[in-house]
Design a protein that fits this description.
Low-confidence stretches: 278-285, 303-349
Structural class: alpha+beta
Mean pLDDT: 75
Largest sheet: 3 strands, antiparallel
CATH class of the largest domain: Alpha Beta
CATH superfamily of the largest domain: Band 7 domain
Radius of gyration: 63 Å
């Protein structure tokens, strides 16, 4: 009886030990096979180096210990700065451009199988694409048209990245550095452009002001009282600024009123204009007096000059008298010159 009990106890002990060993082995297996994949990750399983078709999602998962290898891939958007790249634009300007790229993995298996290091590959592709876009663009585009350049840069990087299981979410050009000489030139150009626009605005303002002044002048010319009111407004404005003495002109309207109120003097009798001097015939500087040109009295009853032989001969007689007087004066001048006297003096008898 004692021997049977001893054997039974030994069997129970062996069973307990076997159970404990099994539990221990199961725990070790569970620890070796159990995997936890986070929400933003995906698990890619390789069994004996071969890719398993299924990609493990987030949560608890199991693999075969010593046969399977689970690789986790981050599916979040990655922000990667692109180192500054030196380049020459299409208009031969040396610039230094840096950018930032946002991308994410859309296929975990391709990101591990098709490329050795997808992060490094994306970074190198971004640098080469950035240098290419610099050479194809002008300086003005880099400075003012960045949105279009960002889209072009995104397409250039995204085309090869799709085969790597990577999607380019966004590309942004951060900064464009220019040489100091170019900065000064652009500053002078901007200043000249602002000055030109200021001059154009001032010219337009002067043109509009001139038109308004012309209209105001026309209104004031039609309404003389408006000019006086404007003068009073100006006087009030000037007097309000400083305590000074103002010298005001005499009102023009009062002068006009006095001119209209003054009696108009009677017009004076017209005076006969003096007769113009007439040159003597054949002489220089000697003139005929008005007495010599006087006409004889006219007889209105006989319609002929008094003392004339026949009507209508007064003109001929007057012409003969003038001619005779001129001849006498010429003879006197010649006689004086022959005697050695002054021209025009009567000769000695």
């Amino acid at each position: 009886m004692g021997l049977v009990g001893l054997q039974g106890a030994m069997m129970v002990e062996e069973l307990v030990m076997a159970g404990a060993a099994a539990v221990g082995a199961g725990a070790v297996y569970l620890m070796a096979a159990a995997r936890v994949v986070k929400q933003y990750e995906r698990g890619v399983v390789f069994r004996l180096g071969r890719l398993r078709e299924s990609v493990r999602g987030p949560g608890f998962t199991m693999v075969v210990p010593f046969l399977d290898r689970l690789t986790k891939v981050n599916m979040q958007i990655v922000t990667m700065p692109v180192p500054a790249q030196d380049g020459i634009t299409r208009d031969n300007v040396t610039v230094r451009v840096d950018a930032v790229i946002y991308f994410k993995v859309i296929d975990a298996a391709d990101a591990l199988v098709r490329v050795e290091d997808y992060r490094f590959a994306v970074a190198q592709m971004a640098q080469t694409s950035l240098r290419s876009i610099i050479g194809k663009s002008e300086l003005d585009d880099l400075l003012s048209n960045r949105e279009q350049l960002n889209q072009g840069l995104e397409l250039m990087i995204d085309s090869p990245a799709v085969g790597w299981g990577v999607q380019i979410d966004r590309v942004e050009i951060k900064d464009v550095s220019l040489p100091e000489t170019m900065k000064r030139s652009m500053a002078r150009q901007a200043e000249a452009d602002r000055e030109r626009r200021a001059r154009v605005i001032n010219a337009d303002a002067e043109l509009q002001a001139s038109k308004k002044l012309a209209e105001a002048a026309g209104v004031m010319s039609d309404q003389p009282a408006a000019l006086q009111l404007r003068l009073l407004q100006t006087v009030v404005a000037v007097a309000a600024e400083k305590n000074s003495t103002l010298v005001l002109p005499f009102p023009v309207e009062l002068l006009r009123f006095l001119e209209r109120a003054a009696p108009t003097p009677a017009p004076a009798a017209p005076t006969a204009a003096p007769a113009a001097p007439v040159d003597r015939a054949g002489t220089q500087g000697n003139t005929v007096t008005p007495e010599e040109l006087a006409l004889p009295p006219y007889d209105y009853e006989s319609a002929a000059p008094v003392g004339s032989a026949e009507p209508g001969a007064d003109g001929e007689e007057h012409h003969a008298a003038v001619t005779g007087s001129g001849a006498t004066a010429a003879a006197e001048e010649e006689h004086g010159a022959a005697d050695g006297g002054e021209p025009g003096a009567p000769g000695a008898t």
